[in-house]
Amino acid sequence: MKKTMRGLLGWMMVYGASVAYAAPAGEGEGVSLLGYLFLGFFATIIISQLVPAGILFFGMVKGVFSTGKKADAAASK
């Protein structure tokens, strides 16, 4: 069993090195249409999450800086 694992590990290291050397280095073809669609999809998700967050933020700021009409109405009862 131990001999088999050593042999397997050796072949995996040789195969991994050959794959690494086979990869082209520094030759980029740029981003394809599918890549731009992928990025655009996630940009759409982020923008669609920012709209409700902005609405909640402005509502919170409005509530913090309001004059307190509800507190005055409750105190007069």
The arrangement of helices and strands along the chain is HHH
Number of helices: 3
Low-confidence stretches: none
Query: Which class of secondary structure composition applies to the elements?
Result: mainly alpha
Largest sheet: none
Q: How many structural domains are formed by the residues?
A: 1
How large is the radius of gyration? 30 Å
Determine the strand fraction and express it as a percent band: under 5%
Nearest-integer average pLDDT: 79
User: What distance lies between the first and last C-alpha atoms, to the nearest angstrom?
Assistant: 86 Å
Q: Total number of β-strand segments? A: 0
Overall shape: it is: elongated
Helix content: over 70%
Please characterize this protein's 3D structure.
The structure is a single chain. With 77 residues, the chain is an all-alpha fold. The chain has one domain (2-76). 79% of the residues lie in helices and 0% in strands. The protein has three helices and no strands. The chain has helices at 2-22, 33-64, 69-76.
Descriptive labels:
77 residues, mainly alpha, elongated
